[in-house]
Design a protein that fits this description.
By secondary structure, the chain is of the alpha+beta class. The protein has a single domain, classed as Alpha-Beta Plaits. The protein contains 11 helices and 10 strands. A 4-stranded mixed β-sheet has the order 8-1-10-9, covered by helices on one side. Strands 2-3 form a two-stranded antiparallel ribbon. Strands 4-5 form a two-stranded antiparallel sheet. α1 crosses α10. The radius of gyration is 21 Å and the shape is globular.
């Protein structure tokens, strides 16, 4: 039977993706910069890292919203999800996550707010210290979210940023559940699954900081660094940032967070207050939070173990790899065979044929 020229149904799309997967096995590794890196035990020396100096961050007390948060929102607002119509629960669960009526919230991570500043009071050496802690994706070197995404839509940029392909994310939320800091946040009622199987698949799209990868690719600084009035945020070659973080910590008899946590990240916090005390203060503050939804206020647990280093994590990665690989290859091939069009254009063609 001849295929309709006006529409491509879901079966035809999946068939085309499967056929394209064979060719994509060769294409994917070289044509898509987001999946070009990210192998286990990878060499991170060519990546970009960052320092967040808690001795310099004051939370911008003279502004309603910290300037780094405002800059992040302004820079990324065009990418924020905008659901249309009724948002359905994602099967088989009887719930969904909708932040579309709270797009102005800046007191936690949401699909519309990819960084925020946690402010706590900590007693240290007999002194009550006020600590402002900017939080966003840590950009792990061996990221569990990347290795365990069943749709294969999380990868590494050339700068090492862990990036979600928002055009093809199905919102399953595995990235959130395997992240030790629960960073990625979900907005229902948007994304590819709305066109393929709105009643059966996915749960929206996951969103988080991508380290302003478009700016880094042009040799420019991320928005949070540019906006910070105290110089608390700094980006540069990861080896340089790591060395500088320890030098700063040594000068104040302080502590570094992010170098070893979760197997190593590209984010290095510097503090004169121990992170276990900061974490304890965050936990106590969260206990008073009346919001019944899962919190987007990451803790700072010390000695965070990487799930991929556990037997359970290794087994999950082995099970997910073939599925994610096929999905990634299919998506990559679809883009390539369609002339390397953007994800949004490709999605439209699923509908239009």
């Amino acid at each position: 039977m001849e295929e309709s020229n006006s529409k491509i149904d879901r079966r035809t799309f999946l068939k085309r993706s499967a056929q394209a997967t064979v060719a994509a096995g060769v294409i994917a590794a070289t044509s898509n910069p987001i999946i070009a890196k990210g192998a286990a035990n990878e060499d991170a020396s060519g990546y970009i890292g960052s320092i967040i100096d808690l001795t310099k961050c004051d939370g911008c007390p003279n502004y309603d919203t910290p300037l780094c948060v405002t800059a992040c929102n302004t820079k990324n607002s065009s990418r924020f999800p905008q659901p249309e119509g009724e948002i359905k629960d994602y099967w088989p669960r009887k719930k969904h996550e909708d932040w579309s009526k709270e797009q102005a919230r800046t007191d936690r991570l949401t699909p519309y707010n990819w960084t925020f500043v946690e402010q706590v009071e900590v007693e240290h050496e007999g002194i009550i210290e006020k600590v402002s802690v900017p939080r966003r994706c840590m950009h792990c070197i061996d990221a569990p979210c990347q290795k365990l995404c069943p749709f294969g839509v999380i990868g590494k940029t050339e700068q090492g940023a862990v990036k979600i392909d928002e055009d093809f994310c199905m919102g399953g939320g595995k990235c959130h559940s395997v992240c030790p800091w629960d960073i990625p946040q979900r907005q229902a009622g948007v994304g590819l699954y709305m066109k393929l199987a709105p009643d059966l698949a996915g749960g929206g799209v996951m969103y988080k900081c991508d380290m302003c990868t478009d700016l880094l690719a042009k040799g420019e600084s991320p928005a949070c660094q540019t906006a910070c009035p105290t110089g608390a945020v700094e980006f540069g070659p990861v080896d340089k940032m790591r060395k500088l973080a320890y030098e700063k910590a040594s000068q104040i008899n302080g502590y570094v967070y992010g170098d070893r946590e979760n197997g190593g990240t590209l984010t290095f916090y510097v503090s004169k207050v121990p992170y276990d005390k900061i974490n304890e203060a965050i936990v106590k503050s969260k206990e008073k939070d009346l919001d019944p939804r899962p919190s987007g206020r990451p803790e700072m647990k010390p000695d965070v173990e990487n799930m991929l280093d556990t037997a359970h994590g290794f087994m999950l990665a082995a099970l997910v790899a073939p599925i994610a690989g096929a999905a990634t290859a299919g998506i990559t091939a679809y883009k390539v065979l369609k002339g390397k069009k953007g994800g949004e254009e490709a999605v439209d063609e699923i509908q239009e044929g």
